[in-house]
Amino acid sequence: MRRDSRRGLFHQVSARDYWVWGGSALAALFALWWTVTALQLVSPYFLPSPAAVLGAFTELWGDGTLQGDLAISLQRIAIGFSIATLFALPVGILMGTVWRFEAAVEPIVDFIRYMPAVSFVPLTIVWLGVGEGQKYSILFIGTFFQQALMVMDNVKRTPREYVQVGQTLGMKTLPLLGRIVLPYSAPAIWDTIRITLGWGWTWLVIAELVAAESGLGHRIIVAQRYFHTDRIFMIIILIGVIGLVIDQAMRAIDRAWFGWSRGGAR
Amino acid sequence: MNAVAEFANVSKTFATKKGEVQALAPVSFQLHADEFTTLLGTSGCGKSTLLHIAAGLETASSGEVLVDGVRVDGPGRDRGMVFQSYSLFPWLTAAENVEFALKGLGLSRAERREIAHEQLRLVGLEKFADAKPAELSGGMRQRVGIARVLSYRPKILLMDEPFGALDAQTRIEMQELLTEVWESHRLCVLFVTHDIEEAIYLSDRILVMSARPGRIKDDVRIEIPRPRGPEVLTSPALMEYKESLTASVRAEALA
After folding, report:
1. How high does pLDDT run on average in chain B?
2. What distance in Å separates residue A160's CA from the closest CA in chain B?
3. What residues of A are in contact with residue B136 (Cβ under 8 Å)?
4. What is the CATH classification number for the domain harbouring A61?
5. Distance CA A243, CA B28 (A)
6. Cβ–Cβ contacts within 10 Å for residue A45, how many?
7. Which of A167, A170, A263 shows the shortest C-beta gap to B57?
8. What is the structure's pLDDT at A263?
9. Are B74 and B139 part of one and the same domain?
10. Are B87 and B57 in the same domain?
């Protein structure tokens, strides 16, 4: 009996096979959507056709609404996420390397991490109003605590022997951090940033859904108010596409900078 | 012979859940200049612990280690360490790994590069200067590890089962290489292994350690003349030493 060598768990497929399967699944999903709407099996109010969604895109892009929303949403995520990351990096690195700092900070961070970021929306409005600061604060609350813990974990994985090599070379704390711990952890930290940025879009849209005069989340709420289901679909898909593009770009940077980390050898 | 290092009543006790465990009984011995000394013992006898205490990476529970009369208080560049797991930085090339050890010595980048290439040449890796560790075999990685530590000329070279993770053939090649390099450098080496033949082939002197708590039970001088070529590995002289040392080590394994 001959067995297909590509069967079984954890089999490594070629890049071509991967894209063929991925592309086919996506095409099948799209065909199903198109068929259901073309046969009018579901009211367009619940499920708009692909053509209607595309129409919504050209319409909102044509009058410039979409560009404006996109720009302000990207700006919010860029600023809010960057602030969170800027704080999470040093805090996470210190938690991962200095036990006193970990003991003092980790329980607090872990505690707040379990509080849903969404539940802070009313509070942030009370504190900061409905301006940009409130959007940043939701992004910060949703991102910082997760990042700090993940970065701590990334840093902790530095093999002790690497640090010992540095110590036998007479290196002190800061050079050990800067020249051994950070270079070793950089790929994992980059991965943490990539993953948490994906989550960041959730916090952004939530903040914009609740209280905003602009942005993609705000546009979704407006569309819902006027029963423009096609616009809601369009914006959700658009956010997905943007996320995908950013994710792929960050993976490409990872491959270019941190190729060594996939060698698996010390 | 003058002592480069002195171990004076060095002991180590670990605290475990079941109470205190003495890993190392008070141990005293001296290391001499230009001499290759090996700590030989079964696993768990505390030989690696002793080496780490000498490196300053662990503290002794009692006693002290003196290097040139100065008490060891933490790690320092006077003692170089070669680790079992090679411990090359995977984000740096072979040459950069060696250069890493030379930073902060007031050398220019060009000078560091030159020393690194010279050291890699001595271990036969000049062609792999720009290779990342992942592209090198285990034996090659350990050669870089040796080049790295020799590049900054420590007074004492500490080697913690450096060939323990290698296959038998590569291991023999590395033993030959180390012998050759050592015979041209002549520095004070403290080597740790459980491999009796390896210990005899490499050493001028073997300290046999007892089972836990570790202490020195035998101090054997290996009088095989140098330079020692690969033929020494199968020589009757080596076999003779092996017989008595095997008996000595086995008595501990059964104890």
Report:
1. 91
2. 10
3. 265
4. 1.10.3720.10
5. 64
6. 10
7. A167
8. 57
9. no
10. no
